[in-house]
Amino acid sequence: MTQSLEGVRVLELARYQAGPRGGMILSDLGADVIKIERIGGEETRRHPPMVRGQSVYFSVYNRGKRSICLDLRHPRGKDIFAALVKTADVVLENFRPGTMDAMGFGYDALRALKPDIILVSVSGFGQYGPYRDRPAFDPLGQAMSGLMTLTGQPVGRPLGTASSVVDRYTALHATIGTLAALRHRDRTGEGQLVDCCLLDSALTMVEIPTSYYLATGEEGGEGGRPPYRARDGWVVISAAGREMAARLMALVSEGATAGEAELLTGGQGRTDARRAVEAWCVDRGVEEICQVLMNAGVPVAPVRTIPQVAQDPHVWEREMLVKMEDAAAGEMYVPGVTVKMSRTPGRVGPVPAPGQHTDEVLRGLLRLDVETIGELREAKVIA
């Protein structure tokens, strides 16, 4: 069955998460993503946690791609990459700004090789600006955007998330930028440079409080989302809007007025309304709370552990977790395709071994013969 991005080729020069996750999404949607790794494989192949010798981190973000190991510091390695660029639609990289130019493959050099090429550059702080040359990882994006002071609370002590949310947001923006650039190229024949970075993406997660501060000079603008303690766990209740809040208050506080319900959705005295909900929840089990509130049309959910999530039948029916054979680990569980499409469904491919597709790519795309490939391997240009 035809896929949405079938016929699109991406050369991925990306490590860690924000870049590779963008390549993963493009691969899910049908693009031929060729991951170009250094000799020996990308460093995140050894990134914990490990399962029977395989990095979960690498597997999750790189399944479905083809892998070639190429020494881009070697002149012949540069020649091979230049030849591959001529077959590609997109180059995806997440080096520090200036690195691609130093390698001889900045946007102008790539455009000279293939005029309609799209270069997607993912970095910490973008291709221009005062912080351009600073290295960065996800926690810096959380810190410098203000997100750490808003995790679970309107304003408070900084708290970073356990997962790399800024990396994931950046990967989504890189994917959206790639798709938009492909659409523009298809209409006009023009390629372009797509510039995405961690700080820009993190700022999209604090849009409301930032805009509120600039308008009023006050911190706030978005309430926190602390869960409610139940007798045997925790629940989250999202009674957004007056009608839902009124139904909730009628359940938890006998004789509650419409004014009290409005307090719960954000006014003076909100703390008192919350205390009423807290008192009602603490004497009841999670299952009972969820059932009562769902019957009343109030959005509610249990706060679950990862083991509980992994056992959820809804997650499996939606194929958001997929088991696949793995050359190193025997089998691995990886995330499924997030975007469900009725006519051009995505697909999840296997995790490549380092350089697994080197010969296949060089023979198939560059028409190199066995003898030449053997010489390149002997010279340690490829692996």
Tally the beta strands.
13
**CA-atom Rg in angstroms:** 25 Å
**CATH H level of the largest domain: which superfamily?**
Crotonobetainyl-coa:carnitine coa-transferase, domain 1
**CATH topology value of the largest domain:** Rossmann fold
The first-level CATH class name of the largest domain: Alpha Beta
Describe the structure in your own words:
Strands 5-2-1-6-7-8 form a 6-stranded parallel beta sheet, sandwiched between helices. A 3-stranded antiparallel beta sheet has the order 9-10-11. The chain is elongated and about 85 Å long. The model is unreliable at 257-263 and 265-269 (pLDDT under 50). The chain has 383 residues and is α/β, with parallel strands linked by helices. The two termini are 33 Å apart. It has helices spanning 18-28, 56-62, 75-85, 99-103, 107-113, 138-145, 165-188, 198-203, 207-216, 242-252, 258-264, 270-282, 286-295, 306-310, 313-317, 358-364, 370-378, and strands at 9-13, 32-37, 50-51, 54-55, 66-69, 90-93, 118-123, 193-197, 228-230, 233-237, 300-302, 321-326, 330-335. The chain is built from 17 helices and 13 strands. Strand 1 (9-13), helix 1 and strand 2 form a beta-alpha-beta unit. The protein has 2 domains: 9-206 and 313-378, 3-Layer(aba) Sandwich (Rossmann fold); 228-302, no CATH class.
